[in-house]
Amino acid sequence: FNKAISSTEIADIINTFLSSQYQPDLTGLNLAINDINQTYQIAATMANLKKTKKKTNQNHTHTQTWFDNECKSIRTNLRHLSNQKHHQPQDTELRQQYCETLKHYKHTLKNKKQKHTNKTLTDIEKSVDQNQFWEMWNNLNSTKQQELAIQNGTIWKKYFENLYKDIQQNDLTHKQTETREKLKLLEQSIKNNQNPIDSPITLQELSKKLQALPPRKACSPDSISTEMLKHSSTQLQEAELKLFNMVLSTGYFPDIWN
């Protein structure tokens, strides 16, 4: 890949990109990122890089805290029955036993998870006025949004009603006015989009971030891996820099990145 991006063909493509003028809108930005993606794809083809197969999502139920010895025992029995079923496909009683065990296994997992969720929610409700509230909240592992709801809303209502109860209204109004004045001063000091975070990205900043990318991560739909980005040549990084600064200056986000 290093030889490919250093070739004359890729260098000519990059020079064309750097000299091109794109419209400062979403259409021009999408066209620019399409040109960058094609550059990487051509280099990958020249280097004979193979696309990695997308891994299927694995079920990590056994790593959950509620997955206890009872669940492990039923799972072991279920796997044993599954192996027997494959060796004896004509045994109807064995297939029936496997189906019943599978149903029992799923029912057990559902109950274990529900009990764990209910217990965690109860502990969270009790810890509203304690320091470990957010720690317990972040440890709540659930895939369904509705399971995160606190069932007893009275506790939350009382908590927010009493949050500033001990603060005098005059003091509270004074704090709000003081904060508002500070925000106005901050807005006046930042004019004409001169916010430091809006300043153009430098090549040194880009190179540092590229080298910090973690390896062996899944590709996005453009099929550009982190390894390809980390091994980009200086000329190719200049093209990437132009693209990122286009995103920053236009205020648009490329469609393919959404």
What would you say this structure looks like, in words?
With 258 residues, the chain is mostly helical. Helices cover 61% and strands 0% of the residues. The chain contains 11 helices and no strands.
Distance between the termini: 27 Å
Please count the helical segments: 11
Q: Give the strand content.
A: under 5%
Helix content: 55-70%
**Mean residue pLDDT:** 78
Provide the low-confidence segments as ranges.
142-150
Question: In angstroms, what is the radius of gyration?
Answer: 29 Å
Helix and strand string, N-terminal first? HHHHHHHHHHH
Shape: flat
SS-based class: mainly alpha
Q: Largest sheet at a glance?
A: none
Tell me the total number of β-strands: 0
In short:
This protein has 258 residues and is mainly alpha-helical. The chain has 11 helices and no strands.
